[in-house]
Amino acid sequence: MQNWDDMRLFLAVAREQSLSAAGKILRLDPATLGRRMARLEKAMQVVLFMKSPQGYALTQAGEQLLERAGAVEQAMRGAAVGDLVQSETLSGQIRLGAPDGCANFLLPQVCTAISRENPGLDIQIVALPRVVNLTRREADMAIGVSAPTAGRLVVRQVTEYQLHLAASETYLAQQREICGLADLKEHRMVGYISDMIFDRELDYLADLGAGRVALASNSVSVQVNMLRQGAGVGVVHDFSLPFAPGLRRVLINEVSLTRAFYLIRHADDARNARLARFAGLLSAGLKAEVARLEELVT
C-alpha cells in the first residue's frame, strides 16, 4: 500500500470520478490532482483510471485498489472512535432499487441474510422494469444491468451472470426439435415487449434474430412463468432456473450470454459510512448468491 496521503487523494477521485469534483472536496487544483494520480500510477506500475471527457472511470486494478484503500479508511475511522465501523450493526431504513429479475430471484435471499445480522435495519426493495432514478431519490442505491454514464453517480460492477435459451420439458416434447438457431423461427418466442426494453443489454432476442415474439412481458418473472406453462422458447437467467422446475436449457453451446450487475450510488453518499457498509454486504451477498444458483444448473 502506498502512503496514506496518496490513498486519500485516490479515494476522492475514484468516488467522484472527476478531478474537478474531487479537487473541490480536497481543496486541490485539478491539474495538481491529475499529476498526483499520474505519479501514483507510475509508482504502482498499473493504470488505475480510464480517462475520458466524461471523467475518470476505474480500471480493474483501480477497483482492487479502491477496495483495499476503502478498507484501510474504514479501519482508521473506526480506530479514531475506539470501535471498528465494520463491526457495527446497521439500523434505520435503506431503500434499494433493482430490475425485477434480480429483485425476485436474488435479493430476497441476500437481503434476508443482511437483515438477520442487522435486526434494527429496515430494507425496502423497489422492483422496477426501468432504471431507478437516484437523482430524484427514488432509492438510496440501485442495481443496474449497465453502467450509467450520466449524472453524479458512483458505479461499481458487482458480478457477471449467465443467460441461456430455455423451454419447458412439456413444450420441447411436443414441438419440433431445436438443433440450431435457424430452428427458432419455427417456435413461439417469449421475451420482452420491444418498446418497453429499458436497457440495450436486455434486447436478447434481437441479437439472436429470432423474429416474432408471440408472448411478451416487461417482467422477467412473468416471462419465466410463461415458459413454465409451455408458452415457447425464451432467454432466461441461469440463476432463475432453480426456481423454475421443468425448464430446460437449449442450444447451450450456440447461445450463451454474459451480462453484469452494477451497484449504483449517488456521489453525495460516497462518504456515508452506513450506506458504504450496506453496499459492501449487498455486493458480497449478490456475488455469492449468483455463483451458488448458477452452480446448481451447471
Characterise this structure.
Keywords: DNA-binding, Transcription, Transcription regulation. Belongs to the LysR transcriptional regulatory family. One of its GO terms (molecular function) is DNA-binding transcription factor activity. It comes from Sulfitobacter undariae. This is DNA-binding transcriptional LysR family regulator. The chain is an alpha/beta fold and 298 residues long. It folds into 3 domains: 4-80, Winged helix-like DNA-binding domain superfamily/Winged helix DNA-binding domain (Arc Repressor Mutant, subunit A), CATH 1.10.10; 89-158 and 260-295, 3-Layer(aba) Sandwich (D-Maltodextrin-Binding Protein, domain 2); 161-259, Periplasmic binding protein-like II (D-Maltodextrin-Binding Protein, domain 2, 3-Layer(aba) Sandwich), CATH 3.40.190. The protein is built from 10 helices and 11 strands. It has helices at residues 4-16, 19-26, 30-44, 60-80, 100-105, 107-117, 169-174, 204-208, 220-228, 273-295; strands at 49-52, 55-58, 91-98, 120-127, 141-144, 153-168, 189-191, 215-216, 233-237, 247-250, 257-266. The strands form 2 sheets. Strands 3, 4, 5, 6, 7, 8, 9, 10 and 11 form a 9-stranded mixed sheet that branches. Strands 1-2 form a two-stranded antiparallel sheet. α8 (204-208) links the parallel β7 (189-191) and β8. The longest helix is centred in the last third of the chain and has 23 residues, at 273-295.
